[in-house]
Design a protein that fits this description.
Distance between the termini: 19 Å
Radius of gyration: 13 Å
Largest sheet: 4 strands, antiparallel
Oligomer: single chain
Length: about 110
């Protein structure tokens, strides 16, 4: 299980999902684009949905649990990238297009 920390919020996802999010978010930031990102909350934090506003000037840190990068699915990257560029922002989905539940969320 890896994590993405943005300002004071840490969201945990499995490493494969996180690797795809890392690529999509970095692509958006390289273009100096800001966007919303949303996901389903973990059951432990209330079974709701969360959203944050990401912008290139924010403090962003990715921590992967495994030492080997997972295989990247270009089709999945395309779906996530299209989502990030949409008016609703990056909605975290899996390869089958289903919403992804965060494994945990912490606020510092």
């Amino acid at each position: 299980m890896g994590s993405m920390t943005y300002n004071a919020v840490t969201v945990e996802f499995d490493d494969r999902t996180l690797a795809h999010l890392h690529i999509v978010i970095m692509q958006q930031f390289r273009r100096q684009e800001s966007f919303a990102m949303s996901w389903l909350d973990s059951l432990a934090s209330g079974d709701g949905r969360s959203s944050i506003w990401l912008h290139p000037e924010g403090d962003l840190y990715f921590k992967f649990a495994g030492s080997r990068p997972p295989a990247i699915d270009r089709d999945w990257l395309g779906v996530l990238t299209e989502s990030a560029r949409s008016s609703q922002g990056l909605v975290v989905t899996n390869e089958e297009g289903q919403l992804v539940r965060a494994l945990g969320v912490r606020r510092s």
